[in-house]
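Minutes, project huddle
Topic: does the predicted pose make sense with nitromethyldethia coenzyme A bound?
PN asked that the exact inputs be recorded in the minutes so nobody has to dig through chat later. Recorded below.
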Amino acid sequence: MSVLFQRMSELVPQWRKERAEILKTYGKEVLSEVTVTQAYGGMRGVKGMICETSLVEPDKGLIIRGHPLLEIKHLWPEETFYLLLTGEIPDEATKAELIADFDRRAHVPDYVWDVLYSMPEDSHPMAMLDTAILVMEKESVFRKYYEEGMTKDQYWVATLEDALQLLAKLPSIAAGVYRIRYKKGDLIPWTNGLDWGANYANMLGIPDPDGSFAKLMRLYLTFHSDHEGGNVSANTCHTVGSALSDAYYAVSAGLNGLAGPLHGLANQECLNWILETMERFGGVPSEEDIRNFAFETLRSGKVIPGYGHAVLRVTDPRYTGFLEFGMEHFPDDPVFATVKRVFDVVPNVLKEFSEERVKAGKNPIANIWPNVDAGSGSLLHHYGLREFQYYTVLFSVSRSMGMLSQLVWNRAVGTAITRPKSIGSKYIKDTFGKK
Ligand code: NMX
Ligand code: MLT
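Predicted holo structure (tokens), as shared on screen:
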């Protein structure tokens, strides 16, 4: 048995005991009230689900199992995944075991390539990725064992097995989507002994003479891995998984949510916006140019992609970490320099625009600071990865680690099927109209 399965076998009974104790002791305590505004407004701020893998503090950002992100940015994705699952940073031997385990599981069935090659040439890369995951559903051991009568206490074991199979294959599939969709030539095979992030970098086929693209990929994969439980992709994966749909169904569903422009697709929109600005002003724009272009975007009814957040109220530490990477490796790259200058200008523009909105009777913009998507595209662009539509696939490979860790945890402790109560507008009028 691998160290990961062994450690999980020790932890799962502890988690179950803790859950039972919490429910017994605090079961009737009130976590949240829900206002009518929250019910109409995406349930923003309602505390109504449990997620142990990570927490997003409005004034601090992502904290993975108690570690603020920027303090663990050196972790490789394998280590991040182990941390998400167990709450512990693995030692070198365990990390090496996980890398070897992915080697054994990395082979992608031929039928996946047949499906990808037969998709329309103009398919969105996210549609290709999600289709590939879904078509592999027949491999699910969870579904197989469930049909054979697996007992509840074994659900997490089968889910972890599915998770490892899926994660091991994702870099090859995602890189394959890139090479097929953009006609980059033959697929580049997985290299045994190479870690998950460097393998993905290598299979994309992006030239990387000094190894810094592989470093970026490791950072990128750790940074996007999780963002607590309520974001669209994690929440969707959780909801689908709560019906005991297997990991392939649940992750594919979650990633369909990530493909929306207000969520993960914002990274493709962001770089578009940066390049549009540069095109308009013939190079790195001045602060005044950016200000004008930002107001023009806002007044035409569009959002500034990469800015704002449902939970965060400060600059996203993931953005800060990417900025540090760019500063270290290519501070003078014009696209990166534009991203940096936009950061100097846009928060004030959003602040002013928000005040205008409030005067006009609209909602304020709750967060004027950049989120993860504001900077990541400029780094990829520097290395020659310029097919913006592909960017959310990179996000997806990473986010699968968080979604799968959450799924395993929920199976381990037996979280109930998701079923909040909905009400209609009539209920609200009838209930509060009587006051
Ligand atoms: N540009 C213009 N308007 C904005 C922005 C922005 N960047 N951010 C928020 N607003 C508007 C928002 O559209 C809403 O308007 P309305 O009431 O007319 O519908 C109003 O401000 C209040 O929204 P908030 O409460 O500030 O934000 P909310 O929690 O609803 O949404 C986002 C959060 C992230 C969806 C929103 O900030 C946004 O659309 N940002 C741009 C897209 C983006 O960067 N998404 C990536 C998120 C990170 N990710 O990786 O998933
Ligand atoms: C994420 O990483 O999922 C985004 O920042 C969106 C969110 O947390 O709501």
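Observations noted during the meeting:
- The chain has a mean pLDDT of 97.
- Residues 155-181 form the longest helix (27 residues).
No decisions taken; revisit at the next huddle.
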